[in-house]
């Protein structure tokens, strides 16, 4: 404490790395660099610890590690969130890491460049599996914020064919999905908290217009379901791209009436979280609920307590 006051440093304690907490090593190194002068003064004052005083090579190594890992901290914190952080984020993030964030820059030390290269090699090898790449590509395509941004023209046609076939197969298994989507859009104002007045009972049955008799029959007669899905995909690609902070699930809920078939496929992919952090938080909450003194709790009660702890 006295060394920190003499050196004009903040009164912070040193941080110990935790093997189960991502970013703790970076935080530990940053705290050591912050308190370098105080640490040197305390260690140099004792003959038994004088040999532990960090050298300039040690400080340079710590600064190189910090320069390589610091850009990753913001991305990992963002990806570990729970608010509309879908798996569709992974492909854009990996692209950004390869092209900008972890791209070797002028002034980087050899150690910094080596760490960046190792991290990129690991990430690229982790997501080059064909099945994983197909999932990430489809999820990115169905995210209205990205769409075709990270797809080549050749890949786009392949994805459109695959999306049409998957949507058609999904609706064949459960034809009621489109009807459910339509009903969710109809009661949208009530769920959004808007003031929607209930329709007054009418004494007379409303008359149908002449055009209403041809609205559904002409569409079903002229276009097959596959053609309708393909038309929806083309319209979705041409639709206006929302802001990057837009919740993709909310976007599909508001625009599901325009793309009722494709929205079913979007919900299938965009419900996948980007990381396992939300489930890990639920496990941690469960560990705090089921303690040694509460080991007799029934599973139903545990589920309710964990739900309340996570959502209140």
How would you briefly describe this protein structure?
The chain is mostly helical and 312 residues long. Helix content is 63%, strand content 0%.
How would you explain this protein's 3D organization?
The protein is mainly alpha-helical and 312 residues long. Among the domains are: 83-188 and 219-274, no CATH class; 277-311, no CATH class. It has 16 helices and no strands. The two termini are 40 Å apart. The relative contact order is 0.09.
Runs with pLDDT <50, length 5+?
182-203, 216-221
**Number of E-type strands:** 0
Based on secondary structure, the structural category is: mainly alpha
Rg, please?
28 Å
Order of helices and strands: HHHHHHHHHHHHHHHH
Strand content: under 5%
Distance between the termini: 40 Å
Largest sheet composition:
none
What tags apply to this protein structure?
single chain; 312 residues; mainly alpha; 63% helix; extended
Which secondary structure elements does this structure contain, and how are they paired or packed?
Elements: H1 2-7, H2 24-34, H3 36-44, H4 56-79, H5 90-101, H6 110-126, H7 130-142, H8 153-173, H9 176-186, H10 188-191, H11 212-222, H12 225-238, H13 248-255, H14 260-270, H15 277-289, H16 299-311
């Amino acid at each position: 404490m006295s060394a920190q006051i003499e050196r004009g440093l903040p009164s912070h304690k040193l941080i110990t790395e935790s093997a189960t907490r991502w970013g703790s090593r970076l935080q530990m190194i940053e705290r050591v660099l912050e308190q370098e002068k105080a640490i040197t003064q305390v260690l140099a004052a004792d003959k038994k610890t004088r040999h532990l005083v960090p050298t300039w090579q040690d400080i340079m190594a710590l600064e190189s590690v910090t320069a390589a890992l610091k850009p990753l901290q913001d991305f990992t914190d963002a990806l570990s969130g729970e608010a509309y952080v879908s798996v569709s984020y992974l492909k854009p993030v990996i692209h950004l890491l390869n092209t900008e964030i972890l791209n070797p820059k002028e002034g980087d030390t050899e150690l910094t460049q080596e760490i960046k290269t190792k991290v990129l090699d690991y990430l690229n090898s982790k997501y080059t599996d064909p099945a994983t790449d197909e999932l990430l590509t489809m999820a990115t395509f169905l995210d209205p914020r990205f769409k075709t941004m990270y797809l080549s023209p050749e890949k786009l046609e392949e994805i459109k064919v695959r999306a049409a076939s998957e949507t058609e197969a999904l609706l064949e298994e459960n034809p009621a999905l489109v009807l459910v989507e339509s009903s969710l859009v109809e009661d949208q104002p009530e769920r959004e908290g808007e003031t929607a007045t209930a329709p007054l009972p009418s004494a007379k049955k409303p008359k149908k217009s002449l055009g209403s008799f041809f609205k559904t029959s002409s569409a079903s007669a002229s276009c097959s379901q596959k053609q309708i899905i393909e038309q929806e995909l083309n319209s979705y690609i041409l639709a206006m791209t929302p802001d990057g902070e837009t919740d993709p699930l909310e976007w599909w809920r508001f625009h599901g009436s325009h793309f009722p078939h494709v929205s079913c496929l979007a919900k299938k992919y965009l419900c996948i979280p980007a990381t396992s952090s939300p489930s890990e938080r639920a496990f941690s909450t469960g560990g705090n609920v089921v303690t040694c003194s509460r080991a007799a709790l029934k599973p139903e009660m545990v589920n309710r307590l964990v739900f309340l702890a996570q959502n209140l």
